[in-house]
Amino acid sequence: MATAYLLGHPVAHSLSPAMHNAAFMALGLPHRYEARDVEPHRLGDVVDALRTDDVLGANITIPHKEAALRLVDELADEARRIGAVNTIVRRSSRLVGDNTDGYGFSRALAAAGIDVQGKDVMVLGAGGAARACVAALGAARIVVVAARDLDRAAALAAAAGDPVVPRPWATARRTSAGIDVLVNATPIGLHGEDLLADFSFEKLPRAVVDLVPTRTETPLVRRAREAQDVRVVDGLSMLLHQAARSFTLWTGREAPLAVMRAALPRPT
Ligand code: NDP
User: Which residue owns the Cα nearest ligand 1 atom 44?
Assistant: First the structure.
């Protein structure tokens, strides 16, 4: 039996253990998935300790995805391209840092019939998740990254290149009209905060993507679903698809998507 860990802070309400443990059971694999709350100053030691035979690897979540880049022995191309690690795979005594968030994001968009080709996209937030989304948005006409820390948005845009432009949060709030696709890559909504209270959309964009994975709908998702003609992707859809890819990286087996979806608290 081997274990895959979720390392983050906080992790208590994570929906990932239910999905992965259901998948292990469905395929008759003697493994388990366990969430561990790890404060930033302990991350190095905890990652070091993954180099043992009874470990499959780990998922890395908020706020450790960028710090994890420096703690692994090698990086898969996707993690290097995105600049963040959300999955560690143990290969013998070496740890490989990978990233499945971009894949999860792309699959979730495709499942909702959202095509970003030639579209104007606004990404809110400039952390690890925003980096993964931006890396998957290369076909857009323009990708505005709005963050309250402009330096962080500028660094993301510089690493990504065209068509990504940084914008201060306050300016983005005033100029959000004309956007085709809105992506919330901040945690706003996790505790019921209404992101739209801050923005001035006369009409919602044609597509709204909220990464925040919650048991009940975030206010943004609820309002977008109530609106006419808005395609909506919620955080559970991306969570499902990124998890499926991590599962395959650890086990070499195709993930049982229907089983994992059924382990989530509501349909996606
Ligand atoms: P990070 O901490 O790396 O980045 C968070 C970003 O949000 C930062 O730019 C931060 O700004 C910004 N932010 C936080 N609070 C506010 C606020 N009140 N107002 C404006 N900006 C704010 O986190 P991640 O990128 O890893 O994760 C972001 C969200 O995406 C989380 O909710 C996470 O759960 C979700 N996520 C979901 C996934 C899924 O599969 N559904 C996968 C990955 C992430 P600042 O730098 O100023 O703090």
Answer: 129
Report the sign of the C-alpha dihedral through residues 72, 77, 80, 85, in that order: negative
CA atoms of 58 and 246, how far apart (whole Å): 9
**pLDDT, tens digit, 9 for 90 and up, residues 95-117:** 999 999 999 999 999 999 999 99
Peptide bond between residue 10 and the one before it cis (omega within 30 degrees of 0) = yes
Say how many Å lie between the CA of residue 127 and the centre of ligand 1. 6
Please name the residue whose Cα sits nearest to atom 17 of ligand 1. Answer: 188
Q: Is the CB of 8 under 6 A from ligand 1?
A: no
Q: Report the alpha-carbon angle 55-130-198, nearest 5.
A: 130
How far is Cα of residue 55 from the mean position of the Cα atoms in its chain? 23
In the annotation, is 65 catalytic? yes
Give the sign of the dihedral formed by CA 53, CA 55, CA 60, CA 63. negative
Distance separating alpha carbons of residues 100 and 117, to the nearest angstrom: 21
The CA 135 to ligand 1 mean position distance, Å, reads 16
User: Could you tell me which of 119, 263, 109 has the C-alpha nearest to residue 205?
Assistant: 119
Task: Pick the closest to residue 57 from 16, 17, 98, 107 (CA basis).
Answer: 98
pTM (2 d.p.):
0.96
How many angstroms does the Cα of residue 129 sit away from the middle of ligand 1? 7
pLDDT at 239 over 80: yes
Predicted confidence (pLDDT) per residue in 196-211, tens digit: 887 777 789 999 999 9
